[in-house]
Amino acid sequence: MNQVSARSSGRRTTPPRLRAALASITTGLVAVGTTVVLAASASAGTTLGAAAAETGRYFGTAVAVNRLSDSGYVGILNREFTSVTADNEMKWDATEPSPNQFTYTSGDKLVSHAEANGMRVRGHALAWHQQQPRWTAVLSGTALRNAMLNHVTQVATHYRGRIHAWNVVNEAFADGGSGGRRDSNLQRTGDDWIEAAFRAARAADPGATLCYNDYYIEGQNPKSNGVYAMVRDFKARGVPIDCVGFQSHFTAQSPVPADYQANLQRFVDLGVEVQITELDIEGSGSSQAASYSRVVRACLAISRCTGITVSGIRDTDSWRSSATPLLFDGNGTKKPAYASTLDALNAGGTTVPPTTPSTTTPPPTTTPPPTTTPPPTTTPPPGDGDCAASVSVNSWSGGFVATVKVTAGPAGLDGWVVDLTLPSGATVTAVWSAQNTGTSGDVSFRNLGYNSAVGAGAGTEFGFQGTGNGPTGAATCARP
Ligand code: G2I
Fold first, then answer.
1. C-alpha 226 – ligand 1 centre gap (Å)
2. Distance CA 247, CA 146 (A)
3. What are the pLDDT digits (tens) for 31-89?
4. Would residue 278 show up in a list of annotated catalytic residues for this protein?
5. 3-state secondary structure of 295
């Protein structure tokens, strides 16, 4: 597994707009140790994004891609925000509606819009018990685990180099007092599903900040204690987690907890950064404004609280619009909560360190584009035997993902085995849609139950990921 362990908000190239904002305020800031205070009001940011950039932070919003045709919406988005999160467009049901058939049209639109406007993108979410496609409902055990790992790998590979932070796993802990995992189809594949997802995400996009994201973990309570124990364990065992996302959906019954900042800090002390990922606060007027201000001040007090994302732009865009929980009203007019948020950002705080010192391999400064090798010409033609296998490899420094297409010969197949040889030093770390024997040197991959039968001339695909260099030689296919 790729052991690049240091991640921070500075890993991706700083967007031009953010860079400009950072440069323009430098003269107005006085650094005192790690704390930066505003020396002159002349440098105060006039938008949320510019004000957050003064301390090296992003200020983002969830975006529903179908609203990008609303000029009022887009006007506020482009003026105020430096990061976007896909509301629903990057979830499993949206990106893989049929097994191994990926649809990126909506997610790509959001990423293109962000890139054209100098914004970062937070990816949401690779693995979650909700908003799964229908086809996962009939899967369990190894088949579901492999489907999930394939999903994580394919989506993170598609967006490789373009996502600042991924919510790799969302909402995996139970509500209530147990402090344990939530029951779900994914949880029933085994307790290690979360770490498997993080490893797959790291292998697929080594430059992204990898987050665990959840709600009702904003204060210290049994649920946040459970997440805390998981993060501590992951850090101790080298599972690649970089960040915890605190959704921060607050209501009258569940207000901003008194120990919000202290709770964020205890996670930072485990060696992860923290992000506020879906902020919205029920209410109106000065009490709502005061709550927003408290959240912003808590984040700015912590140097590794790297950014804040609100859960939409106008109250009418909210998933719970009756709570009027956002910073703009339905007409796009700034609410008192907008002013208090902007003021809190402009009041300054700790600066986000540009990069975190690496404890192992230094992360690459630029992410090399994935290279796809053409299918090897040495693949035996299917007509000559029972079947043929062709391999395509996406590789990067230190790892690879291989996709193998099995094509049946004229008699069709009722089971298949693909053999290939990995170069010295390479190790298979995850396999989907097949069962492997061996993880290095000569490795065999055998069909699972659901993909054993392949009609004459038809094909099926499986994949695997690994560390080191991917396979370069021929793969052979035969009946078992
Ligand atoms: O549930 C609220 C949020 C909790 N944290 C994770 C977030 O991903 C989640 O967001 C919301 C979206 O904002 C809603 O837009 O997740 C909901 C589903 O859990 C989203 O709602 C769904 C509706 O349930 C579907 O009926 C609808 O087709 O949005 C879909 C697309 O508009």
1. 24
2. 28
3. 444 444 444 344 689 999 999 999 999 999 999 999 999 999 999 999 999 999 999 99
4. yes
5. helix
